[in-house]
Amino acid sequence: MTSRKTSFLRSLGPGLLFAGASIGVSHLVQSTRAGADFGFGLLWALILVNIFKYPFFQYGPRYASATGESLIEGYKRLGKGVLITYFILTFLTMFTIQAAVTIVTAGLASNLFGISFSLIAWSIIITFISLVILLIGKYKFLDKLMKVIIVILAISSIAAVSIAIQNTESNISFQQVLPEGSIQIGFLIAFLGWMPAPLDVSVWHSLWAVEKKKDNGTTFDNKRALFDFNLGFMVTIFLGVCFLSLGAFVMYQSNEEFSNSAIAFSEQLIKLYTSNLGTGAAVFIGIAAFTTMFSTTITTLDASPRAMAKSSELLFNKKTNAFYLIWILLLAFGTIIILSFFNANMITFVKIATILSFITAPFYAISNFILINGKHTPKEYHPSKPLVILSYLGIVFLTGFSFWYLFTI
């Protein structure tokens, strides 16, 4: 029994890394703000976007377990133009994504640890620690670390929501709303963009699944890969609802406006929680918030360079470990340089990153769908008819909302 349990835990990994990459800005910042500004009014958006993005995220581990290769190699099979497009989109967005998650993590670290370093100093410390973990421990360490982080995050979030429910005195409305005006629509698109994550995380997941298959061999088959993914995906939805609920229970109609500064934002976030839930909740909120963002920071710092390294190998027909080192150092230093200019305007920076991710989502959705249903994937691994129908609906949803945003800004 014990050995079976150990084997089960060892088989988990990529799905929890997916959760670690997903549960970050989308949950802590965007979901909490959605609850603060709209109560439970955007619960429909959270649920719908998760449903419609589900197939395209799932196609990452499905393709990897079916073929033993990542989606990036699959993109090359679809044509070099698809791979080049992916390479360009990743290069244009990876610095923005990393800077957005690092700046939020730095603000929370400053508040949680009570050490008044500058935001840039905290960003450098967090980036350096993440670099050391990734370069020394590599995938195996990240795999083990994420299991601990997700457990801490889940327990602290459940505790915080439980306290919020017990302490709330106002009547909670579940009436759903559709945002109006360019500002509200802009927030909605930003909320959808990283809920539960940017669609290019499907590519990262396929890379992690390939690594896991190397580590576990034949035991990490299609069945386990999909179970692992579904577990991670359900965790992201559950915690997304938790953070939206915290915003609705604690901040809704509080007449408090969020600051654009990362440090001020984190102070407001913790203060609003503790003033409503009591100082005893501070430890739960602080741990949940920082754990959320640190897990995202470290997984994104690993994933983008891993994806760019694989793309570089395929584009230049050269296999070398140097590509990963080059890209991770470039991303780390590029992030610090960017943050030195944008550290005072966190909310705007996050908004730009999330909107860019949503507008590029149709490319990943269509590419993943064509690849998983085409000749490059063995027929027995093709998705079921209901999943195919959901994929078509998802493509319409993502494309439709992108055009709606572009024509209303």
What is this structure's SSE topology?
Elements (H helix, E strand, L loop, with lengths): L1 H10 L2 H9 L2 H14 L4 H25 L3 H8 L1 H34 L5 H49 L13 H13 L7 H16 L5 H30 L10 H16 L4 H35 L5 H21 L3 H28 L11 H22 L3
So what's the overall shape? Answer: globular
Given the structure, what is the number of helices?
Answer: 15
CATH overall fold name = Amino acid/polyamine transporter I
Topology pattern, helix = H, strand = E: HHHHHHHHHHHHHHH
Q: What Rg, in angstroms, do the CA atoms define?
A: 20 Å
Record field, number of beta strands? 0
- Straight-line N-to-C gap: 58 Å
CATH architecture: Up-down Bundle
Strand content: under 5%
What does this structure look like?
α6 (80-113) runs antiparallel to α12 (282-316). The protein has a single domain (2-406), classed as Up-down Bundle (Amino acid/polyamine transporter I), CATH 1.20.1740. It starts with a helix and ends with a helix. It has helices at 2-11, 14-22, 25-38, 43-67, 71-78, 80-113, 119-167, 181-193, 201-216, 222-251, 262-277, 282-316, 322-342, 346-373, 385-406. Helix content is 81%, strand content 0%.
